[in-house]
């Protein structure tokens, strides 16, 4: 007997990928097939195994559907009967205007096992992220969720406007933009005060969120003038007046700013998360990829005589991580490093080292290669033997300074920077001048971006004229300026947290 699969209807939440439930995220990690909607954030697909089949079944208002509801139902049945674990990823909550009930009925009719995982519904998220509590003791203790787009095959509306208009304190309409004038007219006709506050929230909980406020009498014109289009929700009620006090999401310092992060994919998460926590919409466009060096022999030979070195120097977290990766591959661990003292270029590198249970002996006052050289020279390096695991290609200022002072320096490449191809969406965003800020965390991130764009100097300056640039330190800034561009933001301390703080301060 063939194995029967199972379908999980998972609520993806309102847009922010972090608002998915813990269970929903866990099920994505087990999925063999994922059928996802237009309103489900595509960042959630990062949790899906690379072997899974991804099927886009988006339904976007005003355009042709990728698949009909009947086709979607059949897909779920077919994949499950084929023995697959299927996740049906739906925006918001599957059972609140998500047609989840229809899909479950079809699964049940074919004897397909299923589970439903609730999600944060767009109504509560839109109100919360717009600074509107949908219930409040001083205003109302009742709320209703209503579709603004009923089944077009219905002969007449099933909405009891006469009861709804004055019988419920807060009204939240899903998919109501197209029919907003009709909604407003029905509410006023059946007794709702034309001066009742109304909020319309587009793309709630995402960096693209946009909110407008008016009254029943004015909101249709406000929405028209603002150019608000679906997907958006309409919140009607006195609680909307609290937005002036409670609006928090749209007041974050980087809200509405599109920031290009050029850091390597392996390292981008900390920077991206910090910027997004402050409201930024981050584009991840890695201009560096990390790989093992072409030859491990220099490091392997150095490790055989590690006790003969006086100093072991690390100039980046990457060097630390690749060094210890090689150590583990050789069946060794940190006990091997009992001979030399260890110096690091800055706090991020020190933290990376600490992850392997080792505390650095020397941390310079200035987090640059020059600063590390100064700190070592102050200790005296004449006649000292120094091992420097680093990138295959790197600036020579550190080894040259130490050798000039009489040190013997062995360089052992532990990783190399390669240049990945540029994603079309990154180039297009820059060409359309949609990017507000570019972050550079090393000279290589800057030089590689310019090389990938391959624009002549005049065109580069013209296309990036309105784009602000943040550089982590003076060496990176010099690379940017050499390309004819201006650095707008540079932290005093050359770390990612300080860089994020400097960016936030710039926009405050």
From TrEMBL:
Protein name: uroporphyrinogen-III C-methyltransferase
Its EC number(s): 2.1.1.107
Gene Ontology BP annotations: cobalamin biosynthetic process; methylation; siroheme biosynthetic process
Signal peptide span: none
UniProt keywords, alphabetically: Cobalamin biosynthesis, Methyltransferase, Porphyrin biosynthesis, S-adenosyl-L-methionine, Transferase
Family: Belongs to the precorrin methyltransferase family.
Domain Tetrapyrrole biosynthesis uroporphyrinogen III synthase: 270-500
SUPFAM superfamilies on file: HemD-like (SSF69618), Tetrapyrrole methylase (SSF53790)
GO MF assignments: uroporphyrin-III C-methyltransferase activity; uroporphyrinogen-III synthase activity
Broad EC category: transferase
Metabolic or biological pathway: Cofactor biosynthesis; adenosylcobalamin biosynthesis; precorrin-2 from uroporphyrinogen III: step 1/1; Porphyrin-containing compound metabolism; siroheme biosynthesis; precorrin-2 from uroporphyrinogen III: step 1/1
Domain Tetrapyrrole methylase: 6-219
InterPro entries: 4pyrrol_Mease (IPR000878), 4pyrrol_Methylase_sf (IPR035996), 4pyrrol_syn_uPrphyn_synt_sf (IPR036108), 4pyrrol_synth_uPrphyn_synth (IPR003754), 4pyrrole_Mease_sub1 (IPR014777), 4pyrrole_Mease_sub2 (IPR014776), CobA/CysG_C (IPR006366), Siro_Cobalamin_biosynth (IPR050161)
Keyword Secreted annotated: no
